[in-house]
Design goal:
This protein has ten helices and eight strands. It has about 300 residues and is an alpha/beta fold. It folds into three domains: about 130 residues, GroEL (3-Layer(bba) Sandwich), CATH 3.50.7; about 25 residues; about 110 residues, GROEL, domain 1, CATH 1.10.560. β1, α1 and β2 form a beta-alpha-beta unit. InterPro entries: Chaperone_TCP-1, Cpn60/GroEL/TCP-1, GroEL-like_apical_dom_sf, GROEL-like_equatorial_sf, TCP-1-like_intermed_sf.
Length: about 300
């Protein structure tokens, strides 16, 4: 919250989401105001005070119980908000404002004149919580009208652990997204690449070296899996290829976990079909781009 004495928990919050500054508008041209008497200074201060009063009263009239503003506001406005029992949060980023608007069902208001009750967002609970030290504070907006927008909060002992966790969660979310788009799967452990390599090698009699080169490229992934698992890459790849051909089982892959079986179906190792297609497609496109290069000009030539 913008003021330490503002309430830290608000139930059944009606949120005004503002992108306009909580202060008097600044003129676009430069002006100079000469104040030579106390009366003039008091008049100017009263006008400024009235402007703040009108803004706060406008928020109260539409029924807002919490103000979230993209910009900051000075101490006078902050003190007035506290006295009027209107909690506020300032310096909220534009992306966060959009997410808050989606989650609460509210509308982003660019001008105070457009503020209306139907543009308020609603949340069952808004609370401020401290983590670690008293300086690390976060605003929780819970029980929103539109619960489809959520936030995953990651904590860790150090930055490296947090970044690794973020990558893992991002990969898991991408897998879920791919399954929603296309729920087809292939077996992992390099079994799909080995099966494709065998199929390409079978057709190599027609396309000769081109197909053999493509098949060798597909073998790179299962060989890397075997090497990273402490296995002999060439021997392991040859054994799995022979097993696939002998058993006519495209589910055979690299036994990275040493569980005693190469059948990825029994190990429950899967990959999304759309992800595997994109991997092979993008790799092929990169190779095609490189093959189009017929000359390289180095700086030493000039």
């Amino acid at each position: 919250m913008s003021h330490p004495q503002m309430p830290k928990q608000i139930e059944d919050a009606k949120i005004a989401i503002l992108t306009c500054p909580f202060e008097p508008p600044k003129p676009k041209t430069k002006h100079k105001v000469d104040i030579d008497t106390v009366e003039k200074f008091q008049t100017l201060r009263q006008q400024e005070q009235k402007y703040f009063d009108d803004m706060v009263q406008k928020c109260k009239d539409v029924g807002a119980t919490l103000v979230i503003c993209q910009w900051g506001f000075d101490d006078e406005a902050n003190h007035l908000l506290m006295n009027r029992n209107l909690p506020a949060v300032r310096w909220v980023g534009g992306v966060e404002l959009e997410l808050i608007a989606i989650a609460t069902g509210g509308r982003i208001v660019p001008r105070f004149q457009e503020l209306a009750p139907e543009k308020l967002g609603r949340a069952g609970l808004v609370r401020e919580k401290a983590f670690g030290t008293t300086k690390d504070r976060m605003i929780y907006i819970e029980h929103c009208a539109n619960s489809r927008a959520v936030t995953i909060f990651i904590r860790g002992g150090n930055k490296m652990m947090i970044e690794e966790t973020k990558r893992s969660i991002h990969d898991a979310l991408c897998v879920a997204r791919n399954l929603i788009r296309n729920n087809s799967i292939v077996y992992g452990g390099g079994s799909a690449e080995i099966s494709c390599s065998i199929a390409v090698e079978t057709a190599a009699d027609k396309y000769l070296e081109l197909s053999r080169g493509f098949a060798d490229a597909l073998d790179a992934i299962p060989m890397a899996l075997a090497e990273n698992s402490g296995l002999q890459p060439i021997e392991t790849l040859s054994a799995v290829k022979s097993q696939q051909i002998k058993e006519n089982n495209s589910c055979c892959g690299i036994d990275c976990n040493n569980v005693g079986t190469n059948d990825m179906r029994e190990q429950n190792v899967f990959e999304t079909l759309i992800g595997k297609q994109q991997q092979i497609l993008l790799a092929t496109q990169v190779v095609k781009m490189i093959l189009k290069i017929d000359d390289v000009i180095s700086p030493s030539d000039y």
